[in-house]
Amino acid sequence: MNLENRILKLITADAKLSNKTIASMLEVDEAIVEATIKKLEADNVILGYKTVIDWEKIGADGVTAMIDVKVSPEREVGFNRVAERICRFPEVRSVSLMSGTYDLSVVVTGETMKDISWFVSHRLSTLEQVQSTTTHFILKRYKHDDFVFEDPQEDKRLVVSP
Q1: Sign (positive/negative) of CA torsion 112, 52, 85, 88?
Q2: What one-character DSSP code corresponds to residue 57?
Q3: 90-128 pLDDT per residue, tens
Q4: Is 133 helix (H, G, I), strand (E, B) or coil?
Q5: Dihedral (C-alpha) 28, 38, 96, 109: value to the nearest 10 degrees?
Q6: What is the dihedral of CA 36, 42, 45, 50, to 10 degrees?
Q7: Per-residue confidence (pLDDT) for residue 136, from 0 to 100
Q8: How far apart are CA 102 and CA 124, in angstroms?
Q9: Which residue, 141, 65, 142, is CA-closest to 109?
């Protein structure tokens, strides 16, 4: 695995690692790590750094939904133009082209289910290329971006033996 990939793997697991720590872990010069990371940022390989937060633990309950969207592709651009338009809505967290029955998977957040409903009915479904949507509300998050949200529970069931 090349140096860039090894650095990316490390900062994906922990973006707070210092260049010095990464250099030590990979047994290379710190200046090389710093230059490599700057290049990856300049080339838009590294798009940003983000913190994963368990909002439930501080009582900040929001709503997240995954919306399957069937769209009519446009001549010459396929799904790109409608996907780019959907990306611009502030409620939208991610947009992915999918295989299968639906074309796009859109993840949105809001304060309430009503906010998500309003987004789907007033913004998303009114786009000319959108044929249909199916909304799935996320009820509980167990793992996201390699982070497990709850400590494993100890099994308290009684042992049954024959």
Answers
A1: positive
A2: G
A3: 999 999 999 999 999 999 999 999 999 999 999 999 999
A4: strand
A5: 110
A6: 90
A7: 97
A8: 14
A9: 65
Query: Within the chain, which residues score under 50 in pLDDT?
Result: none
Residue written as token pair 């009582």: 59
- Conformation bin of residue 58: beta by default, left when phi > 0, alpha when psi is -120 to 50: alpha
Distant-in-sequence, close-in-space partners of 55: CB < 8 Å, separation ≥ 6: 61, 62
Considering the entire predicted model, what is its pTM? Answer: 0.76
Around Cβ 110, how many Cβ atoms within 10 Å?
A: 16
Location of structure tokens 């929001």: 62
Domains in the chain (CATH in brackets) are 3-42 (1.10.10.10), 56-140 (3.30.70.920)
The torsion region of residue 146 among left (phi > 0), alpha (psi -120 to 50) and beta comes to left
Tell me how far apart the alpha carbons of residues 78 and 72 are, in angstroms, rounded to a whole number. 8
Number of Cβ within 10 Å of residue 19's Cβ equals: 18
